[in-house]
Amino acid sequence: MNAYNSIVANASKIQKNPALNPINGNNQRINPASENQVSFNDVFQGKLNEARELQFSKHAALRLNGRDINLSQEQLQRVAGGVQEARQKGIKDSLVLVDNVALLVNVPSSTVVTAINQSNQNIFTNIDGTVIV
């Protein structure tokens, strides 16, 4: 018990680290996680949102340029909305039709795999759903 009494007696002499003290100078409890820190949930949701942004594969970009397909911002928003709808229905590989353009999209990665003018081709394989936007 002698060692215990010595530790207790010296405890009051140990300088407290304010960073470890859960009470600020006004005797109010503080939440250390709230001071300039981002929660795990915020980071996780941010990463999910990034993953859901519409992306174009190199192949799709070449097809868009080579076939002179230009999508407006409004059309891109419609495609992104269509991909979101496909995701909600459980579709993995979707044909998304926007005006006169057909886009093959890998839904889980929100990546446009290729782009076709609808007048050029009328058979699409390896899809499990179609969205018309």
| Major sheet size, sense and barrel closure | 5 strands, mixed
- Average pLDDT figure: 80
- Give the uncertain stretches in residue-range form: none
CATH class of the domain at 54-132: Alpha Beta
The percent range for strand residues is 15-25%
Quickly give the CATH architecture of the domain at 54-132.
2-Layer Sandwich
Characterization of this structure:
This protein has four helices and five strands, in the order H-H-E-H-H-E-E-E-E. The chain has a five-stranded mixed beta sheet with strand order 1-4-3-2-5. A hairpin with a 2-residue loop joins strand 2 and strand 3 (101-106). The radius of gyration is 28 Å and the shape is elongated. It has a domain at 54-132: YaeB-like fold (2-Layer Sandwich), CATH 3.30.2310. It is 36% helix and 19% strand. The model has no long low-confidence stretch (mean pLDDT 80). The chain is of the alpha/beta class.
Question: In terms of topology, how is this protein built?
Answer:
Elements lengths: L1 H10 L28 H13 L2 E2 L1 H9 L6 H16 L4 E6 L2 E6 L4 E7 L11 E4 L1
Parallel strand pairs: 1-4, 2-5
Antiparallel strand pairs: 2-3, 3-4
